[in-house]
């Protein structure tokens, strides 16, 4: 792979962290900066944090050059042309080793399976196909030629011709005029094309076919149009169809545009396929983003128990144009055109640090399945104080009889009914000892439900706040303008507000996931420490939020600015502490869960 | 001229000129892109003697995308939905090739009637029937061919239907027939009405009892 450094060994990685290997990191960053175009801005980090992973952002061109490297390699060792090598690699899911092995083993079979050369047997076995083939349709007329071509090829299987010429034959045939079997056009000046199988059709039909395959089916492996012909169109053939030769007369403008669009879509499909085949790569999930991230340290499933591979694809909104934009537009861009942050290890959108993929997934599933039900149960039911069955009261008086254990109790005070006598519709005994005890028992049995809702509500709260951050950005922007008017601060000087909002947003994300983490953490000192850190961060974030909401008066702006700046730095620090400590904990194997999590020891005891 | 139109016109003309294949393609209305194909049931199969009609829709990107075909005539076959007429055939999906024509596709459908693929069924109920008792399946298929595809009834004139289970042969559920028979309708009438309404599979949920009774009272 094209990664400049290899930090897949966690031990080494951690040591470096301990010895503060900043020098190394910096020099590597410099190299990276040189390698990437303007679209790619790697944030310069003085020191790699333990909660960050090493990754590389790749543009479509970068991935294409990776593909080219593999293709060149195969060309070199097999002595085949680029087209054949590409077809073979795509067929083998870009697994060079497997391809080499099978190629050495049975060259002809691999070539046929990849659609790079015609197969020898063209007689279909299925009765359905036989039937249609023997019918007097166009298909039969060409059968003999298919066979002849494949035999010709089969006679010298050891050396596939290095450059397979595309047949660009003039349509004139000595005896009969050529009729395209697809459009039934028989114009004498018609351009025709065929692959090695010599199934000849007119160029227009080929183009329409290829465009339809690419555009409508997102297919990158396009077979010959003839029925049951397994040959796949090589890249140069497709290029010839879709990309007009330089200097060629300009034809139908609309059609040409459509062809070029299909060609660029095809390139994207090739890249996507390559990325899908390679565990070290992941395509950016943001809509219409074509970048790829390479993160070898998170490629294996087992690595996901120790790291949270949050990566960003390097694209930041619309690159290049930001200079000419007004200040407000820039702010808008920084919100909508946020970095494309995503998790390399799982399909969860955005950043789920500090909690690892498996636990985050578990939590999301639980929330989807349980949260509404749990809320309903909480507000509509009570538990029988004797057998803990969940009971919904759907009418009648307060004298309840549990259907299950026949225990009789009062719905209002939860005490046994025996003490109530005949006061069926009123309970004035709320403070009686037995009632208090019964309610205690009830609350204990509710603990697990309450516990879940405690974490869920906080999680949901931060999620909601994060969703409202767009509003907050807009509000802050207004405030910033206001500040410029009421005080003599410049635009640059009021940026502290924006910085603070961004930090709050980021920390809310962290906080949100700390609640998912805390829900599953096993009780103990580690969890207490974790929750202490969480509490500190939460307090800091809320303080900062409050400051941001506070009204602006001309005379308090300097103090406000001082306070906000201070708080922002503090919040930033608390956030880092939470992330770093959790990440270190994962690497040291310090965390214990109260449920079974893949890749971790089973929980010691089920105490929640 | 539009390449698609030219091709379709040529295909229709070719079919008209070809007297040997017995495949017919007709227009539904004035549009050449919505057609009705028909072919005789293959000999030596339960579909022999019937005439099977197929609804054909030519998509915008034809012939680069497959035609859309479904049976108009009800067919009792594992790869054809007994409720909707939808067909499960590879060449109508991913194995489609632009050199295939309407005629060759219809011939493929004809061949499909000869050689069912119960392991890749469209209608799971029918496929189960086929797998468990081929003889009984064929009997039903033959009966459907007579009722829906106009095949001559070999038993006509003979007395009674013998031990044949009319309900099973009609492809209906005994419980459904019993339900309406219990309302006081004659059994043969119920079978007839339910068959007309195609009261089977997922259709049952969509057809209300009132609708059935209405049909029975006709």
TrEMBL record, chain A:
Domain spans labelled RING-type: 176-431, 180-224
Superkingdom in the source lineage: Eukaryota
Listed GO MF terms: ubiquitin protein ligase activity; zinc ion binding
Keywords: Metal-binding, Repeat, Transferase, Ubl conjugation pathway, Zinc, Zinc-finger
Acidic residues compositional bias, start-end: 1-37
UniProt cross-references to PANTHER family, sorted A to Z: RBR FAMILY RING FINGER AND IBR DOMAIN-CONTAINING
Protein name: RBR-type E3 ubiquitin transferase
Source species of the chain: Agrocybe pediades
Lineage: Eukaryota, Fungi, Dikarya, Basidiomycota, Agaricomycotina
Automatic annotation (TrEMBL), chain B:
EC number: 2.3.2.23
Top-rank taxon: Eukaryota
Molecular function in Gene Ontology: ATP binding; ubiquitin conjugating enzyme activity
InterPro entries: UBA-like_sf (IPR009060), UBA_C_fun (IPR015368), UBC (IPR000608), UBQ-conjugating_AS (IPR023313), UBQ-conjugating_enzyme/RWD (IPR016135)
Pfam hit, one: UBA_3
Residues covered by the UBC core domain: 3-150
Keywords linked to the UniProt accession: ATP-binding, Nucleotide-binding, Transferase, Ubl conjugation pathway
SUPFAM superfamilies assigned to the protein according to its UniProt record, in alphabetical order: UBA-like, UBC-like
Residues forming the catalytic site: 88
UniProt cross-references to PANTHER family, sorted A to Z: UBIQUITIN-CONJUGATING ENZYME E2
Family membership: Belongs to the ubiquitin-conjugating enzyme family.
Name under which the protein is recorded: Ubiquitin-conjugating enzyme E2 1
